[in-house]
């Protein structure tokens, strides 16, 4: 580092600006901090190339790090985003989860514009070649935006022989409670769990205990935690996705995980696991993941406003259906009346009327049509069409 603290900022900028700073963190380990002018931040430990914290501009911490994590050389840090390379878990002949996460990287490049970023580098040494007999350069570039975080991994084979590896970016997302978090975008995909291959049947994957799954040939995945959604985008070179949580019963096995902290994270990891990556001599490989965090705005009413308006209590007959308020149901009914011809509309158009864009993201049209066909077909007066009473009944039964 050269000094215990340095700062790089945009020359000539007044007031708040993007910044990259270096300091010593827990255990005396060097940390690089990225900050945007709007207040987003990301902290990366140079030891292990380990992302420790990612806060969006609204102040929300997106990652979980154990309260009793080991911040000392030779130990892997529990939480954040460990780099599993050149091996994921025990799937191969190298050490479990590889050595990148317990290696000393070097800071190679920093920038503040257009977005703050840092590039860290790990090269082959006598120590790494004793574990992994190849000459290589592994670089990690982390780039921060107000609501986005991008991680780019670049591996160059400097050896005379092809090098091979599996890898995962072992992201521990912070959640309010893992039992209420959901993972979207995996339905219909094959996954491996406990040595068995299965097909995911759920559009919204819930965590009900110890979970360790590798999903193959994935694309965009979403993590939903209450009003917060994190969209996980990744390059085709990272085709797989791991969903992992230790669960309550087995949490005691992790001596560096605080009490009940198993509830506070869900790992959703981009990786290249099913098929080993092979990089020819003199060639390179590149993998990238990007997180986009969004927050659904919740309408709130002050206690003063409530007391001023003093509305009459809503009776049970006028209460929510499938989680929808009576006002929302009235809006859908009005839309039905505007679109209906002969008192009913086609289910494709009904879908557009019944759900907002945010709801459609959580409940794709193909799942809606499947539910209609498998669970509601016999209750429709006219096949392939909905009347408002039928649509309301659908919302009450399916939600």
UniProtKB/TrEMBL annotation:
Which enzyme class?
isomerase
Question: What are the entry keywords?
Answer: Isomerase
The record's annotation in CDD domains points to:
D-hex-6-P-epi_like (cd09020)
Please name the GO terms that the record assigns under molecular function.
carbohydrate binding; glucose-6-phosphate 1-epimerase activity
Give EC number(s), comma-separated.
5.1.3.15
From which domain of life does this come? Eukaryota
Q: What GO terms describe the biological role, i.e. biological process, of this protein?
A: carbohydrate metabolic process
Question: Which Gene Ontology cellular component annotation is one that this UniProt entry carries?
Answer: cytoplasm
Leader sequence residues: none
The record, for InterPro entries, names:
Aldose_1/G6P_1-epimerase, G6P_1-epimerase, Gal_mutarotase_sf_dom, GH-type_carb-bd
Xref: SUPFAM superfamilies? Galactose mutarotase-like
Name the chain's protein: glucose-6-phosphate 1-epimerase
Family designation? Belongs to the glucose-6-phosphate 1-epimerase family.
Name the PANTHER family on file.
Answer: APOSPORY-ASSOCIATED PROTEIN C-RELATED, GLUCOSE-6-PHOSPHATE 1-EPIMERASE
Q: Which reaction does it catalyse?
A: alpha-D-glucose 6-phosphate = beta-D-glucose 6-phosphate
């Amino acid at each position: 580092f050269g000094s215990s603290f340095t700062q790089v900022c945009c020359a000539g900028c007044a007031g708040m600006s993007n910044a990259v700073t270096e300091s010593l963190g827990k255990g005396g380990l060097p940390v690089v901090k990225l900050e945007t002018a709007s207040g987003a931040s990301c902290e990366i430990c140079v030891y292990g190339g380990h992302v420790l914290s990612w806060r969006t501009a609204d102040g929300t911490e997106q990652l979980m790090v154990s309260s009793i994590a080991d911040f000392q050389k030779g130990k892997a840090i529990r939480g954040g985003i460990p780099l599993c390379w050149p091996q994921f878990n025990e799937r191969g002949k190298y050490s479990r989860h590889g050595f990148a996460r317990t290696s000393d990287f070097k800071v190679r490049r920093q920038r503040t514009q257009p977005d703050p970023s840092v590039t860290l580098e790990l090269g082959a040494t006598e120590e790494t070649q004793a574990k992994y007999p190849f000459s290589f350069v592994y670089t990690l570039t982390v780039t921060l935006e107000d609501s986005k975080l991008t991680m780019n991994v670049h591996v160059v084979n400097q050896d005379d022989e092809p090098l091979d590896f599996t890898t995962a970016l072992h992201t521990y997302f912070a959640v309010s409670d893992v039992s209420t978090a959901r993972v979207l975008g995996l339905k219909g995909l094959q996954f491996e769990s406990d040595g068995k291959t299965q097909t995911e049947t759920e559009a919204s994957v819930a965590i009900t205990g110890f979970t360790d799954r590798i999903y193959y040939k994935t694309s965009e995945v979403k993590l939903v935690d209450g009003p917060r959604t994190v969209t996980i985008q990744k390059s085709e070179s990272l085709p797989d996705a791991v969903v992992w949580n230790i669960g309550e019963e087995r949490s005691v096995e992790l001596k560096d995980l605080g009490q009940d902290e198993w509830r506070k994270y869900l790992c959703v990891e981009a990786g290249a696991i099913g098929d080993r990556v092979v990089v020819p001599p003199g060639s390179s490989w590149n993998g990238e993941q990007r997180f986009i965090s969004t927050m659904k705005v919740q309408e709130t009413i002050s206690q003063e406003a409530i007391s001023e308006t003093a509305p009459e209590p809503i009776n049970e007959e006028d209460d929510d259906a499938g989680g929808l308020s009576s006002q929302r149901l009235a809006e859908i009914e009005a839309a039905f009346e505007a679109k209906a011809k002969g008192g009913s509309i086609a289910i494709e158009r009904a879908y557009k009327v019944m759900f907002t864009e945010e709801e459609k993201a959580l409940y794709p049209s193909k799942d809606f049509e499947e539910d209609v066909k498998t669970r509601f077909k016999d209750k429709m007066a006219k096949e392939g069409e909905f009347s408002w009473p039928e649509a309301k009944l659908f919302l009450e039964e399916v939600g």
